[in-house]
Amino acid sequence: MENIMKTMKLLLPITIFYSGLFAVINTFEDSYTRINNIDIPFESITMPIVDVDALLIEDEENVGIGVPMRFAHSFDVDLGINNSGTWEEMDDGTLIWRLGIHSPGAYGMKVLFDDYWLPEGAELYVFSKNEDMSIGPYTYEQNHEDGTFGIPLVKSDHIVVEYYQPANTETIPQININKVFHSYRDIHNFYNDDGSSRNHCGDNVACSSADPYEDQVNSVIYLEMGGYVCSAALINNTSQDLKPYVLTAWHCVEPETPGEHNYFTFYFNHESSSCSGSSGYYGHSETGSYLRSSGNMYSSDFALLEMDDDPASWWDPYFAGWSRYTSSPTISAGIHHPGGSPKHINFDNDQAYGCSWYGASTHWCLSWDDGGTAGGSSGSPIFNSDKRVVGQLTGGSGAECGNGTDYYGKFSKSWSNSSSSSGNLKYWLDPGNTSQYSLDGTYDGGAIVYGCTNSSACNYDPDATNDDGSCTYPQGTCDCDGDPTGNYCNCSGDMNDECGICGGDGTTCDPLVTLSFGNVNGNTGTVEINMINDQAVDGFQFVINDYPNNLNLIDVSGGLSAEYDFMVSSSEAGTIVGFTLSNSYIPQGDGVLLIATFETISNAYTDHQLCLSDAIIADVNGEALPVALGGCTALNFSSFTPGDLNDDGTVNILDVVLLVNIVLGIEDFNPAGDMNTDGLINVLDVVILVNMILGG
């Protein structure tokens, strides 16, 4: 490793050619403090002078012919850790490599790497020489298989590339710069040079007019292709798996060779913080992409890119929805980066119309009511009234924020522009071949969920995205639970008559049998059940309910049921069933049907309320007779002597002791101790009991 580092520390005199010009290697040593206040001299290289006037004339000649906006001149270089810059090894074994690059007069500079591979723990920074702007650290997380990488613009005409490697790192890094860009336009308005004119291209998205399009704003991207800029949109697919597909114009990517898509930089949230602002934040960026499909200028001028990496979730990236319907948008909104500026929004309240481009009906045409477009707006999405993408900007006479006609390649044409996956959107945006004509946007994604999507169905699934044909619906006049609805008494459409009889004719309103309570004896716990019947009774069934459910039914006997030889059974819960196995029956009349005997489950003093329910009375043919039930009654057990808590037949001091223990919680509740019958046992009952013993 020591021999390798000695080789790395050599300052190699080189001459690098750039289109007939050569870069100058400075012989002076720059001094710069970056890490741990270490003052390290480093090599600095100066680029040839850029003829800005010639570039601007060339740009003017290319306006409006499908060429994206250029903002920077590029130099082809070969600068890396093996042939340039300065290495320094610190006392602790830390390694630092620095290279200065100077391009006089540049508004900003950036570099591209054709060889980038960092070990874990290592960091790479790019900053202005005067240190008023720095980006990084970049780490091993930016390593790509092809070794390519690019950085955003740095505000300076003199930048420093710095590599930091911790001690005892065994992996040898790979760092080599193949392009240096000189920004001859103040594309990010670093110096408030050219931002004012761009503010006429619609409203800043910080303005209230953009509020209804907040989600769509979060989908639009500032796209930097080397020294060119366009606009683009993150777009959803039917799998909703948040795959980072980006829709832009073909003419934005066409000048680049396939490999150079790896250098495309995607800026998110490049927006002004105020409605009147002319500059915006551009710190949220990712570099690298693949070209998935495209259609050239002779078709719908579209390109679909897939970013190498996902945008960070905290950037709030919105995956825009889309529509491939062929109907013209009734109103339109365009969101874009005119001149590379922060996002703007335009509105057209008139219906767009289909128009020809290179002799084919592949585009939507419109004239903006509010705003316009400019260089850098190319590739930007147009949204319909449902806020779904229906096309991307090719260009038009509305350039430079004018009010002429703008041309947008139709999404519907791009959808099936070709049978090849490299020539259509369908293959990529509908991977499951769902044949959907439109799709909403999303922040969170979510895989397709199959189920019933009809909200009127019994098994409606609000989480389902695709209907699987499983929907079930209410049958007849019943609801989803099988219960009759409204006044219906069954699922066949029968209704209760005025007598409450299902499907009845209203002639059986008068009850033929009435059950009610008769005499109640609290000492014996017995209750009489009386019956008045206008027809002979051959069987009966009913329930005696007690409240608060503190009784057991222990016996039923006597009455008419015994007189006419009925077999009567009962449960502790209060259900009573009676019938006969002979030819006998209870004839028309009235009397005591039977006597029910209860016992208490506990000694708690309670007023028990008894009520009848669920009565069925059968005639001699086994048909149910209309039944009326009498009111509830009270059963108060009184088989104890007040004050005689030990039940020895005498009230004395022993009973007082037991009563006090009940108050103290030592003994359980005893109804004989509730001297004032208020349902509670306390000192009031103690006073009354003592007075009773004293003869008071």
Which architecture of the largest domain would the CATH scheme give at its second level? Beta Barrel
Helix content: under 10%
CATH topology type of the largest domain: Thrombin, subunit H
Count helical runs.
9
CATH superfamily of the largest domain: Trypsin-like serine proteases
The assigned structural class equals: mainly beta
Question: What's the mean pLDDT score?
Answer: 86
Number of strands: 46
Regarding CATH, which class of the largest domain?
Mainly Beta
Distance between the termini: 112 Å
Major sheet: 8 strands, antiparallel
Overall, the morphology is elongated
Give the low-confidence spans: 1-38
Tell me the strand percentage band. 25-35%
Describe it:
The protein has 696 residues and is mainly beta. The protein has 5 domains: 2-183, no CATH class; 197-436, Trypsin-like serine proteases (Thrombin, subunit H), CATH 2.40.10.10; 467-508, no CATH class; 513-635, Immunoglobulin-like; 653-693, no CATH class. Helices cover 9% and strands 35% of the residues. It contains 9 helices and 46 strands. The strands form 10 sheets. Strands 7, 18, 19, 20, 21, 22, 23 and 24 form an 8-stranded antiparallel β-sheet that branches. A hairpin with a 4-residue loop joins strand 36 (513-521) and strand 37. Helix 8 runs antiparallel to helix 9 (683-693). The longest helix is centred in the N-terminal third of the chain and has 11 residues, at 52-62. The chain is elongated, with a radius of gyration of 45 Å.
